[in-house]
Amino acid sequence: MELNSYQQEALNYQRPNIEKFGKRNWFFAIFFGLWVLAGLYALYLQIAKGHGVTGMRDNVVWGLFIVNFIFFIGLSYAGAIIAGVLHLLNVPWGKPIVRLAQMMTVISVIVGPVFILLCVGRFDRLWHLFVYPRIQSPMTWDVMAVVTFLVGAVLLLYLALVKDFAVYRDAKLNVPKWRQKLYAFFANGYRGGASQKKHLIVSQNLLSIIMIPLSIVVASILSWIFGMTLRPGWHSTIFGPYFVLGALFSGIGVLIVAMWVYRRMYKLEKYFTDKHFINLGYIMMILAAGYGYFTFSEYFTSWFGSEKWDNDVIHKLFSLSEYGWWTLFANVAGIVLPILIVAIPATRKPKWITLSAFIMVFALWVKRYLIIVPTLETPAIPMQDTRMEYVKYSATWPEWVLTFAGIATFLLFFTLISKFVTVVPITGLEDPNAIKQQESAPAKTGM
Amino acid sequence: MKQDEMNDKSRRNFLKNTAIAAVAATACGSLACSCSSKKESAGKVKLLSPDGEIVEIDSAYLNHQEHMAIVSKLEAREGIAGKKFVMVVDLALCKNARKCITACQKWHYRPEETEWLTVKLMKDSEKAAPYWFPKQCFHCDNPPCVKVCPVDATYKRQDGLVLIDNERCIGCKFCMAACPYSTRVFNWDEPELTVDIRNLVSNPETNIPAKVGTVEKCDFCPDRAREGLLPPCVEACPNGVFYFGDENEDTVTNGSETVSFSQLIKDRAAYRFLEELGTKPRVYYLPPKDRQFPVERGYEDLDSNIKERFKYIMEPDQKKS
Question: Which runs of consecutive H residues, i.e. helices, occur in chain B?
Answer without folding.
Answer: 2-35, 73-78, 99-107, 144-148, 174-178, 195-198, 222-226, 232-236, 261-267, 304-314, 316-320
